[in-house]
Design goal:
InterPro entries: CBM96, DUF4996, GP_PDE_dom, PLC-like_Pdiesterase_TIM-brl. It is found in: Secreted. It comes from Cohnella cellulosilytica. The chain is an alpha+beta fold. It contains 13 helices and 35 strands. 15% of the residues lie in helices and 31% in strands. Strand 20 and strand 21 form a beta hairpin. Helix 3 runs parallel beside helix 5. The chain is globular.
C-alpha cells in the first residue's frame, strides 16, 4: 500500500471513533521516533494551570550537587535534566543590583566575607563561588555570582522560576523580568494576606504568577486567597502529619479550586519527615507519600532522581514495548515522560551465555541505526550497563550487539555472534573506550556488519573498535537495554535524544482503544474469592481491584479486561507494539507493593452491571463462574501504593494472535502469582471511571505487510 493510500485509509477511519480511538500516522517509523526533553514556557504554563496534569519538579538552587548553588551552570544543568521550575534566591547589593545568593552573607558560598548588602556589584563579581553548597572546605571554582538579569536571560523561554527571598524586593524583581522579557516565567511567593497580594498582583500586567506559602500558623489566609487573589499554587509547610494544613479538608479545598499544591521534600520540618533522603531509599515513603497527600509540585535537592521516579509512573511512548529478558530475579519496569525513557532494571548481566536485563524495544527489518544519550545510571555495580541494542530474538541467549555505558568501566561495544555463545569463555567480543553518563551512544547495522560509536555531543562521533561481522535475521528488535549487574537490586537508567532510523522505513499507525464517546467495546470487572462475595459481579463499578484485601489465602481478587478490536485494523496487520495501560487510583487496607501477572483469558465472560467494590448479586462474571486462564504469565509489574501512577503491560504477541485469528479474543486477567499474604488491594480506574482519560486503554501500533 502506498503512503498516500495508507494516509487515506487512516483518515477514512479516524472519524469512526472520534477522540477516543485515534489512528495516527507516525511517518518514517514508529522507528523514526526522536525524543527530546525540551519544554517550552507555553507548555509549562499550560501544565501549571492543569492541576490534574503531571507532577512538576522544582530544582532547589539549581543542580548544586554538580555545580555551585545559584550558579549559571547549575541552572543550565537543571534545565537540561528536564525540570519544570528552577528555584533561585535573591539578594540586593549596596549599589542596588539584584544578585543570586541564598544567604545574606557571602561567607558560605564564596571566598568573600560580609553581607551582600554591604558590597557593590563590582566587589561581588570579583569573588569566586565554591563548589556545591559551599562551606570552608569546598573548593573554589571559576564561577562568579550571577545577577538576576543574567540568570533570567539564561532561563528565558526554557523554564519557570521560583523567586525565593524576593517578596520584599518584588517591584525591583518585576522590573528585571520586564527588561528581560520573562514576566510570564517568574513565580513570586509569600505568606502575605490576601489584601496585600491581590493589590500587588492587580497592579502588574500581565498578572504575575504567585504561590501562597501556608503553614498551620497562617492557615486562616487560605479562604480569603481562594476567593480573592487566587494564587496559582499553594506551598504547604508542615512538620507533623497531623497538621491542619495537610489535612484533607484543606487540601481538598485547594484542589477543588483547581490550584496546584506545592510540597518541599528538602528536609524534615517541611513535610513531616517525608524527605529527599528517605526517598532515595524508598521513594514511595517520601515523594510517593506527598503525592498521595495531593502534591502536584515537589521541590527537591535530587531533581534527577525525582524525575526518574516520575518517569516510571507514566506509560511508555506508543510504538514501544517493554520486557524483562532472561531470568531476572526482580521485576523491571519502564516509563516515558517529557522526552525521557527511564528503565528500572535488575539482572545479573548482559554477558555470559544468557542475558538478564530490561528491554524497551521496537521490531525493525533490515539496516537500522539507533542513537540515545544516557542521562543517568545508578551505580549498582561497576559493570552495570545501559545503552542501545540490536537483538535477533527476545530469548536470553540470542545473538546481539550493543553499545553500553558503565559506571566504572567506560563505554563498551559488545556482541554475541552465535546463539548461546558463552561470552565469559571467549575473547574478542567487546571493545571499550573511556566515557560514561551524559554521553551519546550509537549502533549501526548495515547488512551483517555492526559498528558502535560514542559521542560527547551527538554530532562528532568516535568509533569503538572495528566493524564486526554478525549474521542476523532481517527482522530484529532494536531498543534501549539496562541491567543492574546485581541480581538483588534494581538500578535506574534514563535516556533521551532517542532516535531509530531504518534504511527502508515503513509507515505505521497507532490505535488507542478506550471506553468513551465513539467506542463502547471495552469491558472489565474484578472477581472476589472470599466466600461472602464469590457469587457477586462488579462490572458496573468505577474501579476494578486486584491482589488480596485481607492478605489471606482465601481472599484473591482477579481483574478481567477485554477490548474489542476494530475492523479498521486489517487482519494481516503486523503488530509492532501493543500496550495495556491501567491507572492506579488508590489502595485499600494496606500499602505493600505486590507483583501482578497478566495472563490470557481462554473462555467467554460477561462484564455485568454490579456496582460497589464488593459487587452485587446480579448476572455477569463472578468468582463462581470465572473463565479459564492461560497458565503462562505474559507480563508482570510490581504495583506500588502511590495513586495516579500508570502501569504498562506488553500484550504485543497476544494482540497479533487475536488479529490473525490464531486465538479468540476473550481478553486478559490480572492476578497475583504467587499470592502475597499481606493486606492491601490495588484499585484501578475501570471503563466506568468518571475521568475518561484515566480509563484503561489498549494502545496498538501496527504496520501493513
Amino acid at each position: 500500500m502506498s503512503l498516500v493510500s495508507l494516509r487515506r485509509y487512516i483518515v477514512g477511519r479516524t472519524g469512526i471513533y472520534g477522540l477516543v480511538l485515534a489512528l495516527i500516522l507516525t511517518g518514517v517509523v514508529a522507528i523514526g521516533t526522536r525524543t527530546t526533553a525540551a519544554k517550552s514556557v507555553g507548555e509549562l504554563l499550560d501544565r501549571l494551570q492543569d492541576p490534574d496534569g503531571p507532577v512538576m519538579v522544582v530544582s532547589h538552587k539549581g543542580d548544586w550537587r554538580n555545580y555551585p548553588e545559584n550558579s549559571l551552570p547549575g541552572i543550565q544543568a537543571a534545565i537540561d535534566m528536564g525540570v519544570d521550575i528552577v528555584e533561585i534566591d535573591i539578594q540586593r547589593t549596596s549599589d542596588g543590583v539584584l544578585v543570586l545568593m541564598h544567604d545574606s552573607s557571602l561567607d558560605r558560598t564564596t571566598n568573600g566575607t560580609g553581607n551582600v548588602s554591604g558590597k557593590t556589584l563590582a566587589q561581588i563579581k570579583a569573588l569566586k563561588l565554591r563548589e556545591g553548597q559551599g562551606g570552608g572546605g569546598a573548593v573554589l571554582t571559576n564561577e562568579t555570582v550571577p545577577t538576576l538579569a543574567e540568570a533570567m536571560n539564561l532561563m528565558k523561554g526554557k523554564v519557570l522560576v521560583n523567586l525565593d527571598k524576593g517578596w520584599d524586593l518584588r517591584d525591583q524583581i518585576w522590573d528585571v523580568l520586564v527588561s528581560t522579557g520573562t514576566e510570564n516565567q517568574g513565580i513570586f511567593k509569600s505568606n502575605a494576606p490576601n489584601s496585600t497580594v491581590d493589590a500587588w498582583l492587580d497592579s502588574k500586567s500581565p498578572r504575575p504568577l504567585y504561590a501562597a506559602v501556608v503553614q498551620d500558623s497562617d492557615i486562616g489566609i487560605v479562604d480569603g486567597l481562594l476567593t480573592g487573589a487566587q494564587p496559582d499554587m499553594y506551598e504547604l509547610i508542615f512538620d507533623s502529619e497531623s497538621d491542619a494544613v495537610i489535612a484533607p479538608a484543606n487540601v481538598n479545598k485547594i484542589s477543588n479550586a483547581n490550584k496546584r499544591i506545592w510540597i518541599n521534600t528538602l528536609w524534615a520540618s517541611l513535610a513531616a519527615n517525608h524527605t529527599d533522603a528517605g526517598s532515595l531509599i524508598d521513594p514511595e515513603s517520601g515523594w510517593g507519600w506527598v503525592i498521595n497527600k495531593g502534591a502536584t509540585i515537589i521541590q527537591t535537592d535530587y531533581s534527577r532522581e525525582l524525575i526518574n521516579y516520575l518517569n516510571l509512573r507514566e506509560p511508555l511512548l506508543a510504538g514501544w514495548a517493554p520486557r524483562d529478558v532472561g531470568a531476572v530475579a526482580l521485576t523491571g519496569s519502564s516509563g516515558y515522560r517529557d522526552g525521557q525513557f527511564t528503565l528500572s532494571a535488575a539482572g545479573y548481566d548482559i554477558w555470559t551465555a544468557a542475558d538478564e536485563f530490561h528491554y524497551v524495544y521496537q521490531p525493525v527489518e533490515g539496516d537500522v541505526t539507533i542513537v540515545a544519550r544516557v542521562l543517568h545510571q545508578d551505580a549498582t555495580n561497576g559493570w552495570a550497563k545501559a545503552g542501545v541494542m540490536i537483538r535477533e530474538t527476545l530469548d536470553a541467549d540470542s545473538k546481539f550487539a550493543d553499545v553500553v555505558v558503565t559506571p566504572s568501566n567506560g563505554i563498551s561495544f559488545q556482541r554475541r555472534v552465535s546463539t548461546g555463545q558463552n561470552l565469559s569463555n571467549t575473547t574478542g567480543y567487546y571493545d571499550s573506550v573511556p566515557g560514561g553518563v551524559s554521553e551519546f551512544v550509537k549502533l549501526v547495522r548495515s547488512g551483517d556488519t555492526f559498528t558502535g560509536y560514542k559521542s560527547a555531543d551527538g554530532v562528532s562521533w568516535t568509533q569503538i573498535g572495528s566493524p564486526v561481522a554478525l549474521p542476523m535475521n532481517s527482522a530484529v528488535y532494536v531498543g534501549l537495554a539496562a541491567t543492574s549487574h546485581n541480581a538483588a537490586a534494581l538500578g535506574i537508567s534514563t535516556f533521551d535524544r532517542v532516535a531509530i532510523e531504518a534504511a527502508s522505513p515503513y509507515e505505521t499507525a497507532t490505535v488507542s482503544l478506550r471506553q468513551g464517546a465513539g467506542y463502547s467495546e471495552a469491558a472489565d470487572a474484578h472477581i472476589l474469592e472470599y466466600s461472602t462475595y464469590s457469587g457477586r459481579n462488579t462490572g458496573g463499578h468505577e474501579l476494578f481491584e486486584a491482589t488480596t484485601y485481607r492478605g489471606t489465602a482465601e481472599d484473591e481478587k482477579h481483574a478481567l479486561l477485554r477490548f474489542g478490536l476494530p475492523a479498521s485494523i486489517p487482519s494481516d496487520a503486523i503488530v509492532t507494539s501493543a500496550q495495556l495501560r491501567i491507572k492506579l487510583i488508590g489502595t485499600r487496607n494496606g500499602m505493600a507493593g505486590k507483583t501482578v501477572n497478566l495472563r490470557e483469558v481462554l473462555e467467554a465472560w460477561e462484564e455485568g452491571t454490579g456496582t460497589g467494590i464488593d459487587g452485587e448479586a446480579v448476572s455477569g462474571v463472578s468468582w463462581n463462574n470465572r473463565p479459564a486462564y492461560g497458565s503462562v504469565s505474559l507480563d508482570k509489574r510490581t504495583i506500588h501504593n502511590v495513586r495516579n501512577g500508570w502501569y504498562t503491560f506488553n500484550v504485543t504477541d497476544l494482540v497479533q494472535a487475536w488479529l490473525g485469528g490464531g486465538k479468540a479474543n476473550y481478553g486478559v486477567v490480572l492476578l497475583e502469582d504467587p499470592v502475597v499474604l499481606s493486606p492491601g488491594a490495588k484499585d484501578f480506574a475501570s471503563s466506568e471511571y468518571s475521568d475518561e482519560e484515566s480509563r484503561p486503554s489498549l494502545v496498538i501500533t501496527y504496520r501493513l505487510p
